[in-house]
Amino acid sequence: MKTFRRYSIALLLIAFAFCAKAQDAMFSQFYRSTIRINPAETGNIEDHYRAVTQYRTQWASVTETFRTMAGSFDIALNRTKGSNSFIGLGGYVIQDVAGTSGLRTIRGAVTAAYHLGRVESSRFTFGLSAGYGQRSINFDGLAWDAQHNGVAYDPTLPSGEAFFSDQKGFPEASAGFLWKRALSRRQQFAVGLAAHHLYLNQGFLENTKDPLITRTVLTGEYSHAFNRVRMDYHMRAQFQAAAAEWMLGGLARYRFGQESIYTTSKTSSELLLGAYYRWNDALIALVGYEYERQFVATISYDLNVSGLRPVTRGYGAIEISLMYLGKYPNQRIRVR
Question: Distance (Å, rounded) from C-alpha 284 to C-alpha 306?
C-alpha cells in the first residue's frame, strides 16, 4: 500500500503539471531569468553582454526528482556614450523534466528589445520573443486505477488507457514592457509587465485542443546603494486565469576590493546574501559570490511551507545559477 501511495502522489503531481493554470517551469532566482520572464529585459545590463545558466532540482523526497535547466544569452547593440537608445538581442532555452513519467518540456526562443533614450532619468523599453517548444511524456511510467488488483498496485495489469500521441510541438510568443527610472545616483527602480503564450494552442494529445491560457507577469525592483553595501528588493506576481503567484524578497550585496576611476580596472568583488518568500509555498535562502564584476555564482534553497509539507517532510528545492558579464574591449589600458 505504501508503494501504491507513492505512485498516487507521483500521479497527482504529474496531473498538476498538466492541469494547473500556472504550469510553466519557474526558478526561485527569477531575477536571473530576466529575458525569459520579460523580453523587454533583453540587453538591460550595465555591461555589454550576459550569459546565464540555471539548474533546479526538487520533489526528491516524494517521487522521481523534478529537474529544470535553462540557459540564456543577451547583448546590448549600438549603445554608445553619446546615445541612450539601443537595441538588445538574445535568446534562451529551458528544459523541464517532471516525475515518474518523465514529462519533458523543452522551449527555446529568440528575444529582442528596443530601449528608448532616457527622458528625465527614465528609460522605456519594449520587447518581443518568438520560439518553439515540445512536450513529451512516457506513459509507461504512470500508475492507473485499473492496475490495482484490489490488494495492491500491479504494474503487469493493463492500464485500460489509450493515447494517440506522446509528444506535441507548439509555437511560443511573448511581449513585454519595462520602465526604469533613476531616483538619484544611488537609487533606482524598475517596473515590468509581460504576457506569455500569446495565440498559443498547446493541445497535448492528437486532435485535441487545449490552449494554454495567457500568463501575465508583473515585476518590480528597487535598488539602494550605500558605501560598500547595496540592497536590491525584488517582487514578482504571476496571473493565469484564476491562479496567482506572489514572490518577494531582498538581496544584500557587500562589495570589497579596489577599483580605478581612471582606467578600466574592475577588480572589486562582491558577497551576496538574500531571502525570499513565495506566498503560501516556500521560504528561500540564498548566498552568492561575484568575482571582479564578471562571474557570479549563486545557490539557493527552498524550504517548503505549503500544504504539501507533510508529504515532502519540509524538503524543497536546490537551485544553482552561474552568470558571466562581459564588456567590449576598448583603447584604455586595464591595470592589474
Answer: 13
